[in-house]
């Protein structure tokens, strides 16, 4: 009888121990800093902000060159071979392009570095000068990465522009930065031709695709990517490497409100974020395979693709429309990017993860019967285990559920995912738990902005809580400052609340040719540290993790002087609608 009692008590005690250990672990701790008074937290493992994780390395150009020398014979960049491209017409007359893609074809680290050097020399031979700027305007692909690293070796600032940007914003971005050379794909070249008369400084265009309309306009010199490499290979030039404080990238935002602003990022800014993320992803190293498909014009992807080579990993390129076997652009019966590559690490945005979740749920619901009942049972048991309310779905039972049910789900993303990084927007609790359970992988949910090189906070691998965005990255201090108009104060109980302010080496220089806006949201304190005022409102939990709770722009002042949060109002309306 005693044995039965002890056996029953073991899972209860274990669960209580798990809960208590979560409570006592400090992920972020208070720190004394300069600048505006507030409540400031730093990463508990690092007493001061991390600037670089590699001795003697202070720029992205140095980091890449070191990686290529260390792993010269290992594959680095992979692109799938195009086998067939066709147009399918549905019964209602709509046309959809479908592709059949083959295996990945690889460039080694050594060959990639050689190509980077050739392309850099070719740029100079074409007439591009160091003080001029290059714009990369294309979807994510290996040529994008090669062009970026080539510019870094010349200390040429790269202007990054979303391939989906509209004509007005595109003109604004190119003219404001006085770009002379644009590197793009054939699809983007057509967009450029449409606005050629409105571009003031562009003199040369380099097309990543071999086939393009060379007579598209007489205003520019148009060359192919391959031709520029050949010219550079025939006339090699020495590198002109940058310093840490030199501007690596002017990154234009998507321009959701008005025209986009160009954020100036130094090599030191991006390197600080890359160094910090490396300390967060568990065991990141040469065995990791990264699936690259998010826009390289976004800091999340740009930082990731600079980090993977630094640890000796592999980058395979894909697209959101060819990601899985059932993606819109994949020809039926052929394989998506994830199936072929079998990545171990991926970055994602909530929209992509929501799509994966919805796709799996639809499949399960369509099967129905015993398969659906088994899935629902397995999911509920694993959910109870993660939430700490049921011990039985750990250990052997977890192994059985993984083998019987979730193994098939994991095959959607290749079956080997061990870590997912999510950023760009808040991730719903439902999707976070779904990914944890069905893919068997932790999600590192981060918070950051273009203005902070994505560096602000990041959830650690053992933090299974939902609704939070983790503790400060090792490169950042995160401060809350009072915002009385919105009713948020650092003296609030049970948690300090206020506007989120980020400081540290990842905080960028400001907005290009926009000193007024820069002065409004960037401040330098008496100790020389730069701080960025995000406009977001957050609160710190007892363990030093941040939760985003509001946005200053969502607050409006009514005619009698009271302040109302539109975000909270909309949330209450949604809850009322659902309840009805």
Describe the structure.
This protein starts with a helix and ends with a helix. β3 (75-89) and β4 form a beta hairpin. Helices cover 36% and strands 23% of the residues. The strands form four sheets. The protein has a nine-stranded mixed beta sheet with strand order 4-3-13-12-14-15-16-17-18, with helices on both faces. The protein has an eight-stranded mixed beta sheet with strand order 9-8-7-5-6-10-11-21, sandwiched between helices. Strands 1, 2, 19, 20, 22, 23 and 24 form a seven-stranded antiparallel beta sheet that branches. It is an alpha/beta fold. The radius of gyration is 25 Å and the shape is globular.
Topology (elements, then pairings):
Blueprint: H1 2-24, E1 28-30, E2 39-43, H2 60-70, E3 75-89, E4 95-108, H3 109-126, E5 133-137, H4 142-153, E6 158-160, H5 167-176, E7 179-184, H6 186-194, E8 204-207, E9 221-224, H7 225-234, E10 247-252, E11 262-266, H8 267-280, E12 289-292, H9 299-310, E13 314-317, H10 337-341, E14 345-348, H11 350-367, H12 369-386, H13 395-410, E15 419-422, H14 429-439, E16 443-447, E17 457-458, E18 471-472, E19 477-481, E20 497-503, E21 510-511, H15 515-521, E22 522-524, E23 530-540, E24 546-551, E25 555-557, E26 563-565, H16 566-579
Parallel strand pairs: 3-13, 5-6, 5-7, 6-10, 7-8, 8-9, 12-13, 12-14, 14-15, 15-16
Antiparallel strand pairs: 1-2, 2-19, 3-4, 10-11, 11-21, 16-17, 17-18, 19-20, 20-23, 22-23, 23-24, 25-26
Helix pairs in contact: 2-3, 3-4, 3-7, 8-9, 11-14, 12-13, 12-14
